[in-house]
Amino acid sequence: MIGGERLSDGEGQQLILVADDDKDLVLALSIRLRAAGYGVIAAHDGDEAYEMASANKPDLIILDVRMPAGGGFSSIDRMKHSLNTRNIPVIFLTAFDDEEMREQGRKLGAVGFFRKPFDDSEFMEAIAGVLAKA
Amino acid sequence: MRAYRIAYLGNDGEVAMGLESALKDDGLQFLSAAGDYQGMEKAVSFKADVVLWDKDNLPPEAPFPLEQIRKSGLANQSIVAVVRNDDLEGAVKSLAGGASDFIYKPLKEDPLPRVIAALNTGQKQRRVDWCNRVIEDTNDQVKGILATLTDPAYIVSPEYQILWMNRAAEEIFGEGQRGGACHHIFYDRTEPCEVCAKNKGAARWRATLKNGKSYRFISAVIRNSKGEVEKLAVGTDITPDQEVSKIHKTFIANVSHDLRTPLAAIDQYVNILLDGLGGELNEDQANYVDVIRRSSFRLHNLIENLIDANKILSGDYKLKMEVVSIQDILDVVLGRLESQAADKGIMMQVQVADGLPAVYADKSRIAQVVANLAGNSLKFTEQGMMQIRAGFMPRDEGRVIVSVEDTGIGVPKEDLGKIFDLFYRVEKDKVYVEEGAGLGLSISREIIRAHGGTLWAESMEGMGSAFHFSIPAYKGQAPLR
Fold first, then answer.
1. What is the three-class DSSP state of B447?
2. Is the Cβ–Cβ distance between B255 and B239 less than 8 Å?
3. Which CATH number is B347's domain given?
4. How many whole angstroms separate alpha carbon A111 and alpha carbon A59?
5. Could you tell me if B350 and B422 lie in one domain?
6. B93 contacts B64 by C-beta, under 8 angstroms
């Protein structure tokens, strides 16, 4: 349905990769992000997230921590070791609330860490902030 | 009842006859025997309660033979000297030598009152001896039981001197520590610990010992056979099992994750609908979706509170300690509380005493306690006021006390002891009056306890409640937790 396909085809749009195994949440996020004018592509496991990032070079990646086929941490690790994807900013979005996990995300190069359920406006502001710097 | 037995040890026939007729008339049993060892043995087998010892049994200059009489087996009996009525010196010497009384011979007055007095003295001594023996036996038994414990137990004097330790305590603190100061040997402190300095009687406290394990101690006052007060303390190992803790932690992390995940999706779709991203809603539809939003918000709060309660009550959290003023702590929550009070039309007053010292505390956790207490007050107050006061603890300037008082429904007397229990909720006419999981006060008490403080409540039903907590003031060094 959403996996692998580009959900927006507008020109000059900034592209966001949403990687989460909760397909309902991915759809909700893509509706919200598209409404804000971003292009959205989606992945539902760790391997797919890495492949989509390599193939599409999005401007930002929103990454879940716990996913099948390598979770978010192993995906970001691979991305940061690949020339193709190393400069793409990553924001973690997870239902875990663990200081160590947050620290691990930071060490692996993430620029943000949001906990589900999250505040919409704070989340959208963070995305805009990261994309403005890019 | 057994008749009391009186033995006369002496060779004065006239005295023997006089005593016999006087005492037998009064229902006492009487024995007359020679004033020597054989006589003493007879008195022992007669089971005499009082021994009348004739001073003429020995030469006038001989000392009163108390030791010999005691050794013969008459260990506890009152010994009354029988002296000639012109021998005042003999009477005095007998008393000095250990006789409990004396009577003159030849007998002029009824010997019964003196004998009864001697009986009393003897019984009193026997009772004291018996009590001491029971105390000693009990202490020995207690020590015997404590010696086999795998947890530490020890006895200290009121001067904080270690009198006895069991094997488990010796394994932690080393052998041969008897006589040392407990606070020094147990905790490397130069001064007695607060808990002992404050509690002369029984006390409870928690401590991490030199083996790195955590213990909950209970102490009780005991009395040794000399009547001296000693303090017995017994510890219970409350160190969480690492493996169980790890499983518990993982379980809670996974459960929280799985509870939050669907909430995130609910939130997102509710907001999509409310923002019109799924098409315009009519007024009714918007109201229905808003009900979902509010319910989801409540569910979210409940889940977060449960997770937080679990962390705190299982000790799986770290305090972020800093030196902070009470005013700074209150500032974290006052804004929110003021608007809650205003919404309900309740007057709110805040007073912080001048010159109040800072505390060494986790600012957000103490603020959480204030928010809990004040939130409860507002919840159960329909009119009147709520007051938050911070000041010096009366009679203890080393502590700061914070009180939250209201004019609300109060807590029934029979429930005052239960309100800190987990899942306690106020019930009125068997109907829960307000929402809430009954976690707030348990969490608050645990947080205050972790700060080395105390949380307690006073209340009069229908008049209002007062909740107080005290925590140590900052004195330039981190307090013993």
1. helix
2. no
3. 3.30.565.10
4. 13
5. yes
6. yes
Q: Are B335 and B466 in contact (CB under 8 A)?
A: no
Q: Rounded to an integer, what distance in angstroms lies between the CA atom of residue B114 and that of residue B342?
A: 84
pTM: 0.54
Rg (CA), chain B: 37
Q: Same structural domain for residues B250 and B172?
A: no
CA–CA separation, B121 vs B18, rounded Å?
23
List of residues 6+ apart from A10 with CB closer than 8 A: A39
Is residue B166 one of the residues assigned to a domain?
A: yes
Tell me the C-alpha distance between B207 and B183, whole Å.
12
Q: Are A30 and A39 in contact (CB under 8 A)?
A: no
Q: Which residue of B has its CA nearest to A116?
A: B264
Question: CA dist B234 to B135, B175, B184, B220, B285, Å?
Answer: 19, 18, 18, 9, 64
* Structure tokens belonging to residue A127: 């995305």
- The domain of B106 spans 5-129
Place of tokens 């107050």: B381
Amino acid identity, residue B63? Answer: P
A4 within 8 A of A48, measured Cβ to Cβ: yes
Residue A69 and residue A43: Cα distance in Å, rounded?
11
Residues B435 and B401 in one domain: yes
- Please report the sign of the dihedral spanned by the C-alpha atoms of residue B158, residue B161, residue B167, residue B169: positive
pLDDT, tens digit, 9 for 90 and up, residues B269-312: 999 999 999 899 999 999 999 999 988 888 888 888 888 888 88
Bridge partners (DSSP) of residue B388 are B350, B404
Residues B419 and B458 in one domain: yes
The region, left, alpha or beta by phi > 0 then psi within -120 to 50, assigned to residue A61 is beta
The partner residue sitting opposite B264, judged by closest CB among A66, A96, A118, is A118
Q: How far is B361 from B328, CA to CA, in rounded Å?
A: 11
Amino acid found at B166: N
**CB-based contact A95 B271, cutoff 8 Å:** no
Sites in chain A below the pLDDT cut of 50: 1-9
What one-letter code names the amino acid at B216? Answer: R
CB B217, CB B200: distance < 8 Å: no
* B contacts of A118 (beta carbons < 8 Å): 264, 267
Q: What does DSSP say about strands A112-115 and A90-94: parallel, antiparallel, or unpaired?
A: parallel
**Among residues A29, A32, A36, A31, which one has the least CA distance to residue A14?**
A36
Measured in whole angstroms, how far is the alpha carbon of residue B321 from the centre of its chain? 29
Residue B43: CB atoms within 10 Å: 27
Which CATH fold would you assign to the domain A15-133? Rossmann fold (3.40.50)
Q: Of B257, B266, B277, which is closest to A96 when you measure between CB atoms? A: B257
- For residues B342 and B331, what is the distance between their CA atoms, to the nearest angstrom? 17
- CB atoms closer than 10 angstroms to residue B240: 14
Structure tokens at B239: 């160190």
SS3 for B66?
helix
Do the Cβ atoms of B265 and A25 come within 8 Å?
yes
Encode pLDDT of B101-127 as tens digits.
Answer: 889 988 888 888 888 888 887 767 777
CA atoms within 13 A on the CB side of B135: 15
Model confidence band, residue B436 (pLDDT cutoffs 50, 70, 90): low
Q: Judge: A22–B264 Cβ closer than 8 Å, yes or no.
A: yes
Task: Give the nearest partner residue to A98 out of B253, B277, B300, using CB atoms.
Answer: B253
Contact A96, B264 (CB under 8 A): no
What whole-number distance in Å separates Cα of residue A125 and Cα of residue A89?
Answer: 15
Q: Quick one: pLDDT at residue B432?
A: 41
